Hints:
The chain is of the alpha/beta class.
Amino acid sequence: MEKRAYIIGGVLLALLLVVAVLMVYGPVPREVQLTAADNGSEIELKKNQALVITLEANPTTGYTWDVVGPRDEQVLRQVGEIEFKPESDLIGAGGVQIIRFEVVNAGRASLKLIYHRPWETDVEPLKTFAIQVLAR
């Protein structure tokens, strides 16, 4: 009976330690979400985390967000196509474009997006969004 009490006490102590660690550090979020307010920042991503960037856009004006870097995808890779979610059902309504990425390998990457009209090749982009990514 005494041996059983020690085992139960040890298990309870281990559970308390796990709970304490989770309370201090918290669980790792599955997605890291960024907006225009995060432009110019450096972020750290861990394996199995997704990066989701949401930026205001209005493709009906011809402007759209495009990924211009990184091109080699050694650290970060775009997942799927860029999505557009309008703010209303009105024709020509603006909204947000959502771009998703996944960590491929550990390392550093400079991520750069431009908001432009793709056919205007000799024109500076209307907006840019750039961050540094540290993947672990």
